[in-house]
Model the fold of this input.
Amino acid sequence: MLQINHLFKSYNKFLAVNNLSLHIPEGDFFGFVGPNGAGKTTTIRIVCGLLPATSGSVYINGQDAFANRKTIKRFIGYVPDFFGVYENFKVKEYLEFYGSLYGLDPVAIKKLSGDLLELVNLSDKSEDYVDLLSRGMKQRLCVARALMHNPKLLVLDEPSSGLDPRARVEMKELLLNLNSLGKTIIISSHILSELAEMCTSIGVMDHGQLVTAGLLEDIRKSMNQDHRIQIGISRGVEKATEILKEVPDLKIQSVMEHGIIISYDADDETLNALLGRLIGAGVMVSEFHKQEENLESLFMRITEERKGVTNAVIQ
Amino acid sequence: MPSFSRKLINPILRKDVKIQARSMKFAWSLFAYEMVLAVIFALSMAVISEVSGSDYKSVVSLFPIIAIAQLGIIALVVPIVTASSISGERERQTFDILLMTPLSPFRIVFGKVTTAVVRVMFFVIGSVPIMAISFTYGGMSWGVLFLFILLCIVYAFFLGSIGIFCSTISRKAILCVLLAFGFYAVLAVIAIVPNFVFLLASDFDYVWEMPLFMMTNPVLIFLEFFYWAMTGEGISAEFGDFSDRMDVMGPVSSFVLQKNVMIIFNILGLIGISILMMKLSARRIDPVRSSKRQEKRFAKMNAMNQPMQMQMAPGPLMQPMQAPMMGQPLYGGQFVQGQMMNQAMMGQPMQGQMMNSAMMGQPMQGQMMNQAMMGQPMQGQMMNQAMMGQSMQGQMMNPAMMNQQTPEVPTPVAPGDSRFAPPMQETNAVNENQTIPGGIITK
Done:
């Protein structure tokens, strides 16, 4: 659906997007994550044709996005991060206006806007003025607007910023629903956990570069690579340390007052035996579990590592 | 029929007029304007009856007074409405969405200018009943009234197109409005300059040929119009007869100064400028056109780039290509992971080499090359196709070439997923001993 090849974008000497290559297949729910200023919005705006790229190419649905801008516009539904409103404009009219911009038939527009309002759960608000809607409703209306021309690709730039938890959940459900209806969705956010709940794949951006990209599950699997296990101990930390030191291939990461963190690549049976040994030796174990790195800390680690390497080379 | 009218009427015009019609501010401003006109009317009638007594025919002089008030309103309202239209959409952040629709930039601009014209025509039409008094009592031709309205529309388009151009310059609406007024002032000065130049050149001999050079001046169109409306003569009657002049300017001037010719010339001139300004505005708001401009600027900037130290990246920069991957475009659905490929490389697995189209068939060990190197060895300068604004598709590049980027750290790429192209990881090994032009840059 979307293919980005060696995309570069520079603002004078600042490189906002640096050699970004990406392929998003049809029907995917792709999350772009990265800190503020990582180049997510720039990439999205280039894909939508709202910003010229310095070099590289973008293909949407097999068509060159830079050469066939007019055709490409019909494939993309774009929801910007900020919802701008016209004063004195009703919800229904808002959708009808955008429908008319796409040259749709007035009768079709009326039917479509009714259907879309139902989809985004705003049917009862069709006669209300747009500027009187809550932020969450505006955002959903914006999604409905982006769907007026039935695009294959829906691009959302930070859609959840400034939404309350309920509105976030509603937004998430709406997007998942759209994805199940066959829309390819690209969503950007700086909140990784939010994306993790809905995306099938994610791409992490930092300093204009795509740090990592892949299926969410694969990234999750690759996270706990040093197999950390956290053992909570109420009594007998010293004893436990002695026992653990004797176990081959086991590495003690840290010893705390009431716990030990170890690195140990073993199957469940071996771990069970180890736990039994500890308990048998009189160590009072309060918890024993695999420590899973969450996406946020993975993200922090990746960006930190990159920063560290950059500094080292500059020095 | 309805679909025809829908196609004919710009959707932006329809939307803006609807929004405007609902605004109480607009209703009040229309009311205030009518009140001002009523006061002007009452004062004018008092003056007219004082000067001409009970001669009701002199009521006709009410027309230019009211008409000039209309022109004042147009000159005031249109720049404010248009100069804040594009910048207003930008401020509201609705402009990106408009650009994402298939509506062409010119139609967006045209819709915005038409909105301003329609808006100001509410005022003009609203004052027709008062103006009509001078027609019914003064015995003026109705054709004059309709010609006046036509001129107002042309004039409003002219002012609107300049206003919208100013609106594309800045994001701040207030600044755009000020720019628009400044623009008019400059235009007014420019319109007068040729006259003075001509007068000076001719040693003040051909004073009455001035109107010929004032064709670009919108004021003249109304001067001519009012003169004709009030006296039934063209302005040439005032300027004298040129038909007996022996030089070229004589017949030209007398032709132009005929009452109809000059007005038509003026109208065409204003329409021409309006279209030009709207086209320019459409260019300015079109992201693709601006892209070409930016690319040129970028290429120029990089051509003058300061010298940088180049380093060679030997070792396994690139893995040998898999045969099935050859010949497949990068966008074809499959992605080449962790590899660099080049159209010229098809079928030639190469270890630790980088090449580009200029290198067809010449494997080079541990070197990087680019087109700029082919004829002119470059001293410490980096240059590649991507920086010259050309597409890099299917060509090999080192990510570190594009900026002061350092070699990549191995990043946790999801295993088993070949769909995503990770940032290139081929540059892990960097040998700092070798330095050749066209390599990896470190500052």
About this structure: Residues 52 and 99 of chain A are 26 Å apart (CA to CA).
